[in-house]
Automatic annotation (TrEMBL):
Keyword vocabulary terms for this entry: Cytoplasm, Methyltransferase, RNA-binding, rRNA processing, S-adenosyl-L-methionine, Transferase
Residue span(s) of domain Ribosomal RNA adenine methylase transferase N-terminal: 35-211
Function: Specifically dimethylates two adjacent adenosines (A1518 and A1519) in the loop of a conserved hairpin near the 3'-end of 16S rRNA in the 30S particle. May play a critical role in biogenesis of 30S subunits.
GO MF annotation terms: 16S rRNA (adenine(1518)-N(6)/adenine(1519)-N(6))-dimethyltransferase activity; RNA binding
Record-linked SMART domains: rADc
EC number: 2.1.1.182
An annotated GO cellular component: cytosol
Organism: Roseibium album
NCBIfam families the record matches: ksgA
Listed name of the protein: Ribosomal RNA small subunit methyltransferase A
Enzyme category, top tier: transferase
rRNA processing in keyword set: yes
Family assignment from sequence similarity: Belongs to the class I-like SAM-binding methyltransferase superfamily. rRNA adenine N(6)-methyltransferase family. RsmA subfamily.
C-alpha cells in the first residue's frame, strides 16, 4: 500500500479514535491510499487553489489532497468524533487544513473558502450527495465559485449526472448538469475498497463549468425538468399542464412536439421550454 505521509495508517486512526462507521451519516471510508491519491490527482492542479472537501471522515482523501500539494484544504465534517483525527492532520500540514464542524448543506462554501479559487473534491455521503451537487451547479452566479468538481457517488447517481438525452438515466440531474457543466465519469471504485463496503459500486465524476451555458432562467428550468421528469412516461403536453394552461402551445413555440416524452428532449429543448415558461410568467 502506498505511503503518502508520515501519519499513521488510516486503519490505526479509525481504531484509535473509535470511528465505527455510522450509516445515518453515509460513512463508508476509503482506506486505500492508492485510490485516494488517484482521486486527488484527478482533481487537477491543487497548488494554487483552495480545495473544499465535504465529509473528510478520518481524513484519507484529505491527506491525499494535501500530499498532492493542495495550497489549502477546507473540510466540512458533520461528525464531531472525526475532529481529533483531523486535527492531527492539521498539525502535520501547518496552516494548510481548516476543519469546519457542521452540515455542508447549511454552510456557505464561498464564505468558508474566503473568495479564493476553489476546486471541490469529495467522497460524498450518499444521503446528501445529490443535493450538494445540485446546490453547486445551480448557483445564481455563473461562472460559479468553483473551477472543478471531483466527486464520488454511487455509480447509478454518477450515470444520471452524465446521462445523454434518449437514455434511461437521463433526467433532471442530467439536464441541469449537462446545461452548466462538461465532464464525465473517470473511474469506478469497487465496494471492496471501502470500510464498511457499501452495497453498490461507486464512481468518480469530474465536472468543470461550461463557459457559456445557453441563456436560461434557472428557476424555470428547474420547474420544467421537475414537471417533465416527475411524470416521465407521460407526453409533455400532459406532464407540463401543471405549469401552464397553455402548455401545448408553449411546447410548440419551443420547437418541440407536444407528444414527445421528457427523456427524448435534449438540453437545448429544455432550455427553450424554460424560456417560454418564464416569458409567459413575466408577461
Ligand atoms: N472522505 C472520507 C473517505 O473518503 O473515507 C469519508 C467519506 S464518507 C462516504 C462521508 C463523510 O461525510 C462522513 O465522514 C460523514 O460523517 C460526512 N457527512 C455526512 N453528512 C454530512 C453533512 N451533511 N455535512 C458534512 N459532512 C457530512
Amino acid at each position: 500500500m502506498a505511503q503518502i505521509d508520515d501519519l499513521p495508517p488510516l486503519r490505526d486512526v479509525i481504531a484509535a479514535h473509535g470511528l465505527n462507521a455510522k450509516k445515518s451519516l453515509g460513512q463508508n471510508f476509503l482506506l486505500d491510499l492508492n485510490l485516494t491519491s488517484r482521486i486527488a490527482r484527478s482533481a487537477g492542479d491543487l497548488t494554487d487553489c483552495t480545495v473544499l472537501e465535504v465529509g473528510p471522515g478520518p481524513g484519507g482523501l484529505t491527506r491525499a489532497l494535501l500530499a498532492a500539494g493542495a495550497k489549502k484544504v477546507v473540510a466540512i465534517e458533520k461528525d464531531s468524533r472525526c475532529l481529533p483525527a483531523l486535527s492531527e492532520i492539521s498539525s502535520h500540514y501547518p496552516g494548510r487544513l481548516d476543519v469546519v464542524e457542521g452540515d455542508a448543506l447549511k454552510l456557505d462554501p464561498v464564505t468558508l473558502t474566503g473568495g479564493d479559487k476553489v476546486r471541490i473534491a469529495a467522497n460524498l455521503p450518499y444521503n446528501v450527495g445529490t443535493q450538494l451537487l445540485l446546490n453547486w451547479i445551480t448557483t445564481p452566479d455563473w461562472p460559479p465559485f468553483w473551477s472543478s468538481l471531483t466527486l464520488m457517488f454511487q455509480k447509478e447517481v454518477a450515470e444520471r449526472i452524465i446521462a445523454e438525452p434518449g437514455s434511461k438515466a437521463f433526467g433532471r440531474l442530467g439536464v441541469l448538469a449537462g446545461w452548466r457543466c462538461k465532464g464525465g465519469i473517470l473511474f469506478d471504485i469497487s465496494p471492496k475498497a471501502f470500510t464498511p463496503p457499501p452495497k453498490v459500486t461507486s464512481a468518480v465524476v469530474h465536472l468543470t463549468p461550461n463557459d457559456s451555458p445557453l441563456p436560461c432562467n434557472l428557476k424555470s428550468l428547474e420547474q420544467v425538468t421537475a414537471a417533465a421528469f416527475g411524470q416521465r412516461r407521460k407526453m409533455l403536453r400532459a406532464s407540463l399542464k401543471s405549469l401552464s394552461r397553455d402548455a401545448e402551445e408553449l411546447i410548440v413555440q419551443a420547437g418541440l412536439k407536444p407528444t414527445a416524452r421528457a427523456e427524448e428532449i435534449d438540453i437545448a429543448g429544455f432550455v427553450s421550454l424554460a424560456n417560454m415558461i418564464s416569458k409567459t410568467e413575466n408577461s
